[in-house]
Prior knowledge:
The structure holds 2 protein chains of 2 kinds. Chain A is α/β, with parallel strands linked by helices. Chain A folds into 2 domains: about 95-285, MetI-like fold, CATH 1.10.3720.10; about 340-600, P-loop containing nucleotide triphosphate hydrolases (Rossmann fold, 3-Layer(aba) Sandwich). Chain A has 22 helices and 11 strands. By secondary structure, chain B is mainly alpha-helical. Chain B has a domain at about 90-265: MetI-like (MetI-like fold, Orthogonal Bundle). Chain B is built from 13 helices and no strands. Chain B starts with a helix and ends with a helix. At the A-B interface, helix 6, helix 8, helix 10, strand 7 and helix 14 of A face helix 1, helix 6, helix 7, helix 9 and helix 10 of B.
Amino acid sequence: MTSATRSAGQTGEVVRPNTLRRLLRNPLGLISIIVLGVLLILAIIGPWIAPYSQTHADIAASLAGPSADHLLGTDSPGRDVLSRLLFGTQLTIFSGLLCAAVAIAIGLPSGLLAGYYGGWFDSVAGWAGNMLMSLPGIVVLLAVRAALGPSVWISMIIFGVLLSPGYFRLTRTAVQSVRNELYVDAARVAGLSDGRIIARHIFSVVRAPIIIQTAIVTGVAISIQAGLQFLGLGDPGEASWGAMVNEGFKNIYVAPGLIVPPIVMIGLTIGALVLLANALRDALEDGQKVSRKRRLTDIATGAVTMAMPVVKTGGSAERTAAPARGKRAAATVEAGTEHHLVKVTGLGVGYPQADGSTKHVVDDVSFHVDRGEVLGIVGESGSGKSQTAFSILGLLPDNAEIIAGSIQFDGKYTVEPGDTKVDQARVRPLRGKRIAYIPQEPMSNLDPNFTIGHQLARPLRVVMGMSKAAAKARAIELLGLVGIVDPARTYDLHPHEISGGMAQRVLIAGAISCEPDLIIADEPTTALDVTVQAEVLDLLRGLQKRIGMGIVLVTHNFGVVADLADRVLVMQAGHVVESGDVRQILRDPQNPYTRILLSAMLEGKEPMTMLTEVGRERAGARA
Amino acid sequence: MLSFTLRRLGAGALLLVVISALAYVLMFASGTNIARNILGETATEDQVALKQQQLGLDQPLWQRYLGWAGSALTGSLGRSWFGSEPVAQTIATRLPVTLTLVLTAIVLTAIIALALGVLAATKRGWVDKLLQVSVVVGDAIPGFVLAIILAFVFAIQFKLFPAVSTITPNAPASAWLLSLTLPVLAIVINAVTSSAQQIRSAVIRQYERDSIRTLRSRGLGEGEILFKHVLRGASPAGLTVLSLQFIGMLGGAVIIEKLFAIPGIGNLAVTATQLGDVPVVMGVVLYTVVIVVIVNLLVDLLNGWLNPKVRVA
């Protein structure tokens, strides 16, 4: 959580609100905690407040209904149901907790060791864990019962061993992620030993998941022991809920009410545990949503950190104020603008937040691109340039909203003024055929389960209606066109069998395959080696000249812009800060932010590119 | 692919050896009074010593395990200490019943959970909310309690199905169908919500992938994206969930079989456990582990077939 606190310091926003407070504010969480508290108290004092001993039998009062002597009646040997229920509560709760304790005692330290040291211990422990998890618990417990007798304590200890891999995995993953973070931040951390940092980090990271896991494990343990007792495999000398269910089931015709109290207790206990786990998970996820988003921008931004303004709009007031969209009759675009290939007017994109406000990521952005023209959109990560590009493609995330403005493509609106979402019915026919997309990260943008050829040929068949053979021939031709040496062989390869540079060429081949009018290229060279970058830029320039298509080139790198673009748009924090002819802006930048970006390039060291490249390359290799 | 399969087979065999050895040692290390248990309190010391000799309990533990394992390899699991029937034969007549029960349940669970999970992931809205609620409810009710409720309502109150199974090896199909409906239902209801929930998250994770966005940008339809790319990508997670559910069902079947008096190996295991009939319990454990190994192997092979990256790993 280091980066969360770091960025909190810079943005002045509240760090993660207290998970416990979120939990208690959730009514289900509060109820489950109260129920579990009462059960725990009953488990402790139960045997003292029980009116009878658990084995005291009054044959004369067999199967009696509720009375002053026996508040919940009696079972077939005439034992007091309430007393047995209370004794059973102690047995169930304590042995369930014992099971969880055993699982923690084994899983937590072994997970710590495996995550920290890795190596052979990690392999052996991982294998043992898989083995334990691949055994059906009840069958093992039957064997244990046959070997070691009916004690619920013994079976719960064994069951705890069986459930320990859950804790092992959880801890191991947490330790590894903290360790990885430590490597990155190692330079910043002086003085403290790895062990102490890990202990502190692990505690804060693992605490809540362990409580969740414990609630689940205790629930499973109680369920399985009740099951065993119901089968008559419990200790006959001790009152237990499962045995009481059995007793009730046997006498279901004679005394139908007998089965109710133990079932209610079982349902109530396990239900409360499940609800607690759920509520806690929700509380945790709510907290993470905020910090994860912030962390992503924080890491990606690198040198220049700029917090995104969270603008509170009065709910949907702004949207309702916008002209209501008529029926399907599409509004006509402003006269005199039809000839622009794409025209974006006053575009705003936002994400609704949990607290009812809307986070604006793009604000009042306007530009146009003509046929055969290359527009560069420059800005750092998080400046809204990719969001703008995705709006044109209609590929914004589901929760994104268009909060203002319009987009028109070739004289027709794809986003009319007043629309809150990109109308898929209008954009889908354009995608692939007329608007294409070159993504940033080559590896993650190819589906690992399908061959390169399949991913190139399918769109040709779907969009262009080609036959199978024609699509294959065209795909191989395209692979050659983007400079892949052995196209026919590459056609049959899977994405993991080619390099990142080749993958990016494949993606470019895919984008130009249907000869689109417009290409949206989102950082097309960022994830590549410097030498490959130049080749890919050459390729794009050549193709652009040959096919005569318009390009929207999204990048943070002025070098790429200088190489390719005719005009340029500089974005910062969702706004356009400067725009114009590329030579004019390179020669005489007006905006101070443009100057910062330019100087970064002119000194010739591209600090942001190099740093993020290493990180991305590694992320790509892992994914 | 061959070496991949061989490695998985080896791991399975190792699991089998480790578990059977552990179970054997566990059962016999504590079993000093096994002979007395069988003969009862009234037996004389001489009778007990003789019985011990008959059962081979006077030999060292490792020797006995090797003997047991050796004969297990030839298909013999010894004889029940109580009925004197060969264990392998007892299990062989009961295994089909349990497999019918569990396989029917897992197939139904897979179909329903896949449909529900995909629907909840793609449509969200009320389907999703309903799933979320039923997951919590499903988790909160133990399988056997659910089975009791089903038995009470549909067998005892409405008498739609028999409360006690009428299955015998030669019973007509209708008897199997009627007897297994409630048990299968109990198992499926218990397994389906959490499976659907996990399939839902796997599908959502796939939709968040960059490659899906790129496929959309190429003009592919939503149907092709869902059925070819998303489901294929989510299949390893889905298969893992279902294989874990299957193993869980093998355990759950023990209680369900006892409850509905179904003559499967679960029921056998409970009776044998109550009697302390160690060879039978050992046999059931062994068969269960074999089934687990086979299921895991099938899932691994399927995953390798579906996901080209796994094959090289």
